[in-house]
Amino acid sequence: MTGFQDSRTYRAWGRAHRFAHAVARPRFADEAASLLAAPDGPTSVLPYGMGRSYGDSCLNRDGGLLDARGLDRFVAFDRETGLLEVEGGVTLADILRVLDHAPPSERRWFLPVTPGTKFVTVGGAIANDVHGKNHHEAGTFGRHVAGLRLLRSDGRVLDCSMADNPELFAATIGGLGLTGLILRAAIRLKPVPGPWMESEDIRYETLEDFFALSEESLAGWEYSVAWIDCLAKGRALGRGIFTRSRHTGEAPAGAKPRTAYEPRLSVPLDFPGFALNKASITAFNALYRRRIPAGGTRGTVHYDPVFYPLDAIGLWNRMYGARGFYQYQCAVPTAGAPETVRALLETIAAAGQGSFLAVLKTLGDVPSPGLLSFPMPGATLALDFPNTGAATHALLDRLDAIVAEAGGRLYPAKDGRMPAGLFQSGYPRWREFAAHIDPRFSSSFWRRVSVPVDQPSLGPSPGPSDSPPSHSPSPSPRP
Amino acid sequence: MTRLAVFGATSAIAGAVARLYAAEGASLFLVARNAARLEALAADLRARGAAAVTTAVADLNDLDRHPELVERARAALDGLDAVLIAHGTLSDQAACEADAGLARAELTTNFLGPVSLLTALAPVMERQNRGSIAVIGSVAGDRGRGSNYVYGSAKGGLGVFVQGLRHRLGRSNVAVTLVKPGFVDTPMTAALPKGGPLWAKPERVAADIRRALDRGPAVLYTPWFWRWILLIIRLLPDAVFRRTRL
Ligand SMILES: Cc1cc2nc3c(=O)[nH]c(=O)nc-3n(C[C@H](O)[C@H](O)[C@H](O)COP(=O)(O)OP(=O)(O)OC[C@H]3O[C@@H](n4cnc5c(N)ncnc54)[C@H](O)[C@@H]3O)c2cc1C
Ligand SMILES: NC(=O)c1ccc[n+]([C@@H]2O[C@H](COP(=O)([O-])OP(=O)(O)OC[C@H]3O[C@@H](n4cnc5c(N)ncnc54)[C@H](OP(=O)(O)O)[C@@H]3O)[C@@H](O)[C@H]2O)c1
Fold first, then answer.
1. Residue A375 reports pLDDT greater than 50
2. Domains of chain A
3. What pLDDT does residue B57 have?
4. By C-alpha distance, which of A48, A49, A55 is closest to A415?
5. What is the pTM of this model?
6. Is B37 in CB contact (< 8 Å) with chain A?
7. A423 vs chain B: nearest CA distance in angstroms?
8. Between residues A118 and A271, which one has the greater pLDDT?
9. What is the CATH class of B3-241?
């Protein structure tokens, strides 16, 4: 039997938090149950998937982690109905590998919702109720979960769905790993004609253009997203490349489908922190935009580069140097969305921070079953910021004020620093959710955002013991 | 279509080998002692493409059952193209030094069990006049070391047995391979500190085993560099070796 072992290597994707954990790696459901039953285990535990969350929502400082990746088995797959049941540690890449190898005579199925990387587990996708470029049509991942099996720390194994244990089901969708360990889940896949996508890239010049293109693409385009040049100012503010796509049955002549099912290990070393500065980012952004001719491009391409362009670069998170980075992702409501996004972009451009990866997308009104689901009808903006300590934090605090004012919220999957007040105002059902938390389960994120706040609005980050050493940054290995 | 039988199927290494065969559409026969885990494995392998998966629950220290298990495997698959013997336990050396009964039990799991299985398998393979067998030994069997010589002697003894069996079955077109993994990140080694270039993932080792089952070498060190590490360790003169703390 494998027990809990001390480890300092478990990180989140942003790499800004470096915590010690006691980690156990169950391979079978019965092992997970014995680990929770063992009297000598850590006082609190948290499931850990692929660690593709950016901040501390997948970390449990000085507590236990249940690394769920060993629970990586398919349970059942009905190729007629597309109902797929898998264990919680199965990754979306594992699923795509099986779907891609369907005999040609059989129906083709695809993930109903997928985030921008396929290296996430099903447990992680449920716990953050992830969304994809088809949010306006399909809603979140949780909407496609027919049922799930939860292991609680008291040893109970509970099957949850809209019909069975519906409250616990709603709490577990977007439940941040706090309601118990997801042993398995059944997902309703989506029928597709094949692995090919019709995809169009459009270069656009203003923020108004973005909203107009999004509106226009609602009819007929299942997927849409925009990459924006977050350093552009004035009239050019919000300019970028709008990408829309849809599945197609027509294969391009001579092309072969090719998916990389294993994470690449390129960028193996931490880049020196200065490699990403304003000048290099401005240059990159200008070049990247001009890649697309003024008239746009259109073509038939494989799904892999459409959905997972970053997977091709491997461990790109290391580009931000040893101090790591933050991603800031907010959702803001439809009413006033253009003005709010403009205010956010103006603040970022004025600060001259920001990075290559700035993404803007409209969100639809398909409801999620989850209590703490992140998306809301409106728009979502996501940007990476290299961790430069106090300056980064000051900018993010200014963005918080704009988001709070607009009635928006931040995405826990990407967060490592939001103040408790912003979490509590953004997720009004958080107390209802808290009643379903397993008493043994906790996370650094949760301890941070659930502290009592006087007025449920803004305040500087309280910075309890779990917060990262952002103001006294850890020394870089190289000067 | 390939037909593979796995003894000790819940092992992390064996599980990774079985997945490679499943993806090729092979038919599998799996033996392990935990029924629920075995069923979970079988369902997974079916979804990943195995043409058919049959299971048998058995404690492989129950040596008397071996002939029956081998016969069931042969019958279920209608012949055996490949066989993997993977079960084992990493003995607690200090506990074995204090308790000869425990040492004997470890030798049963890691030596007598595989020996008894192979003895039951040999005539079946001989009659087929084809097929290959891979038996998981260990680099620990290459030289006795103070820190784990009970486990090491079981694996070393198994190595000599496999060598002899290979010699015998070579006349019947049956290849027998001794697999010698180095440090592999599996539950067996959960208590050891991990990380660094010497540690391999079970998938890596499984890919080597898969290839060896096609090619049938006498010995497979996996990953490959262990061949050279062990060459040096074997060549160290006793006077030098005694002063190391391996
Ligand atoms: C390049 C990139 C692109 C991304 N794009 C998007 C996107 O487009 N949309 C989006 O929504 N997100 C996106 N994300 C975020 C990512 O999808 C989520 O953070 C996801 O939850 C990560 O899954 P994981 O398996 O890595 O889980 P982790 O990050 O390890 O854990 C996430 C949460 O899941 C819980 N958890 C994990 N396994 C289990 C289990 N078995 N049972 C219960 N709880 C569990 C953990 O406790 C934690 O709370 C992106 C991330 C990256 C790195
Ligand atoms: N990991 C390494 O570093 C390493 C190095 C060299 C050699 N090896 C060898 O590789 C082989 C596979 O080990 P692994 O690394 O994959 O570890 P593992 O996952 O712990 O597998 C060992 C397996 O042996 C099974 N087993 C033990 N006693 C058994 C018995 N009496 N009857 C039936 N099954 C029994 C266990 O079954 P349960 O699941 O029911 O406990 C377990 O599935 C072993 O022979 C090991 O000695 C491993």
1. yes
2. 5-69 (3.30.43), 197-419 (3.30.70.2520)
3. 98
4. A55
5. 0.93
6. yes
7. 37
8. A118
9. alpha beta
